[in-house]
Protein 1
Amino acid sequence: MSEPAPRTDWLAIIILYCAGLVAAMQFAKLSPVMSLVARDLALGPVGAGLSVSILGLVGVLFAVSVGAVANAVGLARALRLALFGGGAVALAGAFAPEANSFLLSRFLEGFSHLFVVVCTPALMANAAAPRDKPLALALWGCFFGAGYALTSLLAPFIVGEAAWRNLLLAHGAAMIAVGLAVTWVTRGQMAQGAWPGFSAILRKHADVARSGAPLLLALTFFAYTVQFLAVLTFLNIFLQTQLNWPAEQIGVALFIAPLWSLVFTLMSGFVARSGLGIARSFGIVFAVLAAAALVVFALVPPPPLLLVSLAVMMACFGLLPGLAFANMPRVARSPEQTTLGFSAIALFGNLGTFLGTPLLAMFLEAGGWTSVALVLATISVAGAGLGWALERATRQHAVVN
């Protein structure tokens, strides 16, 4: 275990946070250019969705065990390799001539993304003095939405009329640049651990499956992740085809949406401590999310109501992940279970990002935007039910103890 930092190295924390931003961009960079990529590489709706969510497949397969591998390599060294490797693969993907090679590059980017999100928060915590750790990790909690917003802001200036490959080249260069900066601020950090055995990795997966309430909380988190990235991905197409918005206006909307969501992520800690209870807090947020999805995608109301409903959706998408992370210490029975719970959140979070975009694409192709609205509402109702089951399991454990 590393010694606490006597003083907070804010420069190191900011540079490490930039690693999170470029990792978020691995998902975000296709959202503003999805229609161009699909056209040039002959990707149908399902293929287009898979090009985003395939990064999550790596997390589904390796989320529980990758922490042990990163520890064996050394967190700082693993992060550097992830950034340089991810940058190289992103550059290669920019030159992909057809769909299969492009999807392969996206799959390989998933390894880079997973190692970044596992290693970076631990390194940020190590760079912070004890009193500043909550602030440093709160900053990390906003990396995905901030990366999405930054991508939406910069993409129109990089892409131009049709050169989507420029955006991928810029992202690859950014990952390598951040890798160089991270190499500088983590110089001398070479600590390594023992390589995990196969049986140890299997036991860790079994422990997650038996964790009870933490597993239910991870499933509730899945009900969020299976929707969030998919909605952001297809919001571009929805605004373009249903409302005939120009590219500039869509770019502004895609920039504001995740930033608005971030505001509510920061507020979620207060909601978790408000006394509403787990079932009521998750139930209210998921119910409002279901109603907003039906209004936006099924009714397609006049612009003022549509914009308000979209704002409500993004607020719910901001609250849900914060509620999940804030409630984990409450539902876990021990520090070990808390760790298992966060491993389960990583697993089901990646499963949600992997399945969500192709799932919405399939329903969009089969039944249009009304089908999209219905599947989103159904998932939200299931999320509310999982929140109720989670609170019941937590209360039963409290009674037993």
Protein 2
Amino acid sequence: MKREKEQVREVMMKKLREWGFSDEEIKDEERLSALGLDSLDRVELLMYCENTFNLEEVIPDDKFEKVRTVGEFIDLFC
């Protein structure tokens, strides 16, 4: 099932707000590393989104490892 980018962005932002980020800080071109997200943070964010969307199949590691920006993360789910 394809999702709208804004739907994915809102789920992602919910988790990022819990971590203290503001909506203004998060732009599609922003690198996840520039936000201070380490590999464990990124995995936690991925799992949160997978669980929220009740994915039957998880995002493959090889696709996830290539993700560098907020926009690329969102595209994983669209």
Protein 3
Amino acid sequence: MSNRQTTSAQREAIATFCQQRKVRRLTWLYKPLRSGPDADSEAALLIEFNPDDVPSLSTLAAMEEAISGILGRKIDLHLYLREMYLGYGPGESGILYDRADYIEVPLPLDKIAEFCKRKKIRWLAKLPYTLRESVTNYADVDFLAEFEPDAIVGWNIFSMGDELGEILGCSADVHSVGTPGTEWGAKMRKIAEVQYERPH
């Protein structure tokens, strides 16, 4: 078993542990950050919390020991603070736990439709998972949007995610699906769950 491999029982135990302690995300690092003769860790994890839930250093140390016990090997646990982490990046498929996988997001379709009309969105769909190649994506839910030809998007797409998140009561990101005929756009449309479509 490699240092990152886990059993289904271990993943379930990690999920329960993280939910009880309000962990947002656990992500494998490429390798442990600590070095020297006293470094005995086999792997390392980044741990992320919402700002109001960040625990004390002593609690983090206890969590490191507990996670090492669940996984059956010595783990380095490093606190991830957005835009302030300067260590190694996460692994390519490194997410061990993500809160987004375990929450139910209410979708008030009437408010979503009103939002889409104001933002000149002609088609909006929810992805069944978050677009999370690394810890740089913080959303609990991701949406794909196709805009009207006269819509002014640009950097406004980031504030659209914030506004949609306020409607849903969780963090959200909005991504432009781009030209519908592109390979990526076609692939995303096949798996996305449509929440709004402008009447023809």
